[in-house]
Amino acid sequence: MSYFEALEDGIRIEKTGHYSSMYYPPCRFCGTPVRSMSYLRTVNYACPDCRKEAVAQERAEKAMNNMTNKERKLDNAIKRIAKMTDINQYDVAIDMVKNRLTHTGWFQSTEEIMVALELLRRGIRAHHQVKIFEYSVDFILPDLKVVLEIDGLPYHGKNRARYQQVRD
User: Which residues contact 7 (CB under 8 A, 6 or more apart)?
Assistant: First the structure.
């Protein structure tokens, strides 16, 4: 099927053996011929340089979206704390959390951010996202010899119950 589609679409074809061919469809970005062992009309081909650039751009967009989500979670945490107490007590802690928002895997829930803010405000030494065996725990408080796991809303669904039981 790909051979006939390539012929109909005017794609360059080179025979590489008795039953095999190499196809050269254009890159969807720059038009450079892309070497491929098969051809399908529905596939958008990309040359290595354009693919690398597209992947880098996709990663940058994902990081930006992730940052936006984390900023929204921080704002929610601040609002929730402000309902209970004077938020001005947390200014230093908020600045410290803002500086750490870009860390991969950190601050996955609003509740986790709230705990981090409270620990920082109280001056409690904590290590965040620490690997223990095959799990990663939210906080280790070495001075208190405590492992602290904060489960936000996403971790309380029906399908997570068994996983949480094994993990606990």
Answer: 13
24, burial (CB in 10 Å: exposed 0-12, middle 13-18, buried 19+): middle
Cα distance between residue 150 and residue 55, in whole Å = 33
pLDDT of residue 53: 93
Query: Residue type for 63, please?
Result: A
3-class DSSP state of 128? strand
- For 154, phi then psi, to 5°, come to -60, -20
Tokens (6 digits) for 99? 């500086």
Q: Which two tokens stand for residue 150?
A: 């904060």
Question: How many Cα atoms within 13 Å fall on the side-chain side of residue 67?
Answer: 10
Tens-digit pLDDT profile for residues 51-93: 999 999 888 888 777 668 888 999 999 999 999 999 999 999 9
For residues 138 and 129, is the Cβ–Cβ distance under 8 A? yes
Report how far apart, in Å, the C-alpha atoms of 106 and of each of 70, 102, 139 are. Answer: 9, 8, 10
The pTM (predicted TM-score) of the whole model is 0.57
Element (H, E) at 131: strand 127-132
What pLDDT is recorded for position 156? 52
Task: Collect the ranges in the chain with pLDDT lower than 50.
Answer: none
Distance CA 151, CA 166 (A): 14
- Beta-strand pair 135-141/21-24: unpaired
